[in-house]
């Protein structure tokens, strides 16, 4: 128990078991594990009535965070939810077509020499 | 390249890259990441796999199904909405199931070495060599620590002549920036057909 009425801090055990938020699911619905730095964004597709019913507050929070492109790691950090949970929830939204993955290169593939040079120049300019 | 955005004013990364920061406990990984980037917390709550289960003694806690790792990562925003992520790897072997996730598609790795405890680097060197992930060794020069010559560290870690070994001060942004630049140059030099530097691949990068 902390001060200022704060009962839970970063080191506390979760109040809700993390995978309770996913209905006990630990694997993404599509079986595909998103890379930590995969860039995701709201697809802009209007919500279907049936989707809205299935959306948890956590799903909605993710959609809000993905109004602009963000990485999986950013979304996990912003929500404070564990990475494994975020991956399951994101897979739901991807299946519904609400979130899309913006790929600048195939997942897991190393960047091209051109991209690497851009990173190098960017670092030198810091 | 990603081009799916209809709103050119939208924010957020268009391309993301990651570098692993490895090294023993207390070697200065977090200091190094903090020196150059915006640090953010990341929680992982991994369902125990058979791999990690072998590290976790479940006697008496058979219903324990997840294990928590709290870690930080750094974000460096470069020009053109490119963002470089620095992920510190949890050092203990029981977290090695995280390493595969973290190293997937990574540009390369920096091994932060504390010369007082060089043996702490062995596991990282082994891992990256086996995975074929390009890495550099950054010797963190702590105040008062005996400063070994990079050549001595190279010999102690049994590194090939092509692996850059550089001295750094993990607290200094400029020093950390140079470590990352060395890594990028080393990665580029190792690409087939890349004439970065002055020699054809596989080129020996200039040694520190």
Account of the 3D structure:
The complex is a heterodimer of chains A (126) and B (208). Helices cover 38% and strands 8% of the residues of chain A. Chain A has one domain (18-124): Winged helix-like DNA-binding domain superfamily/Winged helix DNA-binding domain (Arc Repressor Mutant, subunit A, Orthogonal Bundle). In chain A, strands 2-1-3 form a 3-stranded antiparallel β-sheet. Chain A has 126 residues and is mainly alpha-helical. Chain B is α/β, with parallel strands linked by helices. A 7-stranded mixed β-sheet of chain B has the order 2-3-4-1-5-6-7, sandwiched between helices. In chain B, helix 5 links the parallel strand 6 (135-140) and strand 7. In chain B, helix 1 packs across helix 6. The longest helix of chain B is centred in the last third of the chain and has 17 residues, at 173-189. The radius of gyration of chain B is 18 Å and the shape is globular. In chain B, 39% of the residues are buried. Mean pLDDT of chain B is 80; it is low at 1-9, 50-56, 58-63 and 197-205. Chains A and B meet through strand 2, helix 3, helix 4 and helix 5 of A and strand 1, strand 2, strand 3, strand 4 and helix 6 of B.
């Amino acid at each position: 128990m902390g001060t200022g009425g704060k009962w839970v801090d970063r080191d506390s055990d979760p109040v809700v078991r993390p995978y309770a938020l996913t209905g006990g699911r630990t694997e993404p619905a599509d079986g595909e594990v998103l890379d930590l730095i995969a860039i995701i964004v709201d697809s802009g597709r209007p919500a279907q009535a049936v989707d809205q019913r299935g959306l948890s507050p956590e799903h909605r929070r993710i959609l809000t965070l993905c109004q602009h492109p963000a990485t999986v790691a950013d979304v996990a950090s912003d929500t404070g939810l564990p990475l494994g949970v975020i991956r399951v929830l994101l897979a739901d939204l991807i299946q519904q077509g609400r979130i899309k993955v913006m790929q600048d290169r195939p997942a897991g593939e190393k960047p091209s020499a051109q991209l690497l040079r851009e990173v190098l120049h960017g670092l030198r300019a810091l | 390249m990603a081009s799916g955005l209809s709103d050119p004013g939208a924010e957020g990364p268009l391309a993301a890259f990651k570098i692993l920061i490895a090294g023993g406990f207390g070697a200065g990984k977090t200091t190094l990441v903090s020196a150059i980037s915006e640090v953010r917390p990341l929680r992982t709550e991994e369902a125990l796999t058979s791999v990690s289960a072998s590290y976790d003694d479940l006697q008496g806690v058979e219903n324990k199904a997840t294990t928590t790792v709290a870690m930080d990562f750094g974000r460096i925003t470069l020009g053109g909405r490119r963002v470089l992520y620095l992920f510190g790897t949890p050092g203990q072997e029981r977290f090695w199931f995280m390493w595969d996730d973290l190293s997937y598609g990574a540009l390369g790795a920096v091994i932060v070495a504390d010369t007082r405890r060089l043996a702490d680097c062995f596991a990282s060197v082994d891992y990256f060599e086996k995975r074929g992930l390009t890495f550099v060794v950054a010797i963190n020069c702590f105040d008062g620590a005996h400063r070994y010559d990079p050549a001595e560290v190279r010999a102690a870690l049994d590194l090939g002549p092509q692996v850059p070994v550089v001295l750094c001060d993990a607290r200094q942004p400029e020093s950390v920036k140079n470590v990352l630049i060395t890594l990028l140059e080393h990665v580029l030099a190792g690409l087939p057909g890349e004439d970065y530097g002055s020699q054809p691949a596989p080129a020996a990068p200039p040694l520190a």
